[in-house]
Amino acid sequence: xxxxxxxxxxxxxxxxxxxxxxxxxxxxxxxxxxxxxxxxxxxxxxxxxxxxxxxxxxxxxxxxxxxxxxxxxxxxxxxxxxxxxxxxxxxxxxxxxxxxxxxxxx
Length: 106
Hints:
Elements: H1 10-42, H2 47-54, H3 58-68, H4 79-90, H5 96-105
Helix pairs in contact: 1-3, 2-3
């Protein structure tokens, strides 16, 4: 059963106002914290380095990045895929997907 709301005294109303103000400040701080972790990871910092700086576990940092980081492209590329693409591009080669895209565009 829901309780009937009661009128707040002047002291209670002030305290509630303080709670709301603190909640807004906490939300802004949390947003800045998450943004800084995601930005650090996107800049190339490792999970361990970020975790040490934030005084949390690397698993916590990984979870924050997973939940709040930039969305991954579908079909994740592995490090091997990226290295292979970089080397073939340096040699002037293209993979089959490049020729398929070019053919589809024509």
